Amino acid sequence: MEEEKNPTSPEGEEAPKNEEKAKSPWQIQKESWYDKIPLSLKQLDIIVGICLTLLALTFLAICLDALGIFHLFG
């Protein structure tokens, strides 16, 4: 019964549970760029979060200026 649950290769090794899909050239290029950045994943997540927050504040300032509620530059 256990052999049916865990398929094995002819050599007796277990088959990989998570087979990786073939990566596109664009995905490989992006990963090579990220490998050159000496930051951890958590640090990159913080930087991305800060940038998204600033972008949202920019859109809010634009909307408030367009509605005439708040004029940032006079």
Biggest sheet layout: none
Low-confidence stretches: none
Order of helices and strands: HHH
Instruction: Tell me the helix content.
Output: 55-70%
Q: What is the count of helical runs?
A: 3
Number of DSSP-assigned strands: 0
**What would you call the quaternary organization?**
single chain
Please indicate the percent range of residues in DSSP E strands (runs of 2 or more): under 5%
Structural class: mainly alpha
What gross morphology would you assign?
A: elongated
Quick description:
This protein is an all-alpha fold and 74 residues long. The protein has helices spanning 2-5, 25-35, 41-67.
Notes on the structure:
This protein is mainly α and 74 residues long. It is built from 3 helices and no strands. Helix content is 57%, strand content 0%.
Features:
single chain; mainly alpha; 3 helices
Set down the secondary structure blueprint.
Blueprint: H1 2-5, H2 25-35, H3 41-67
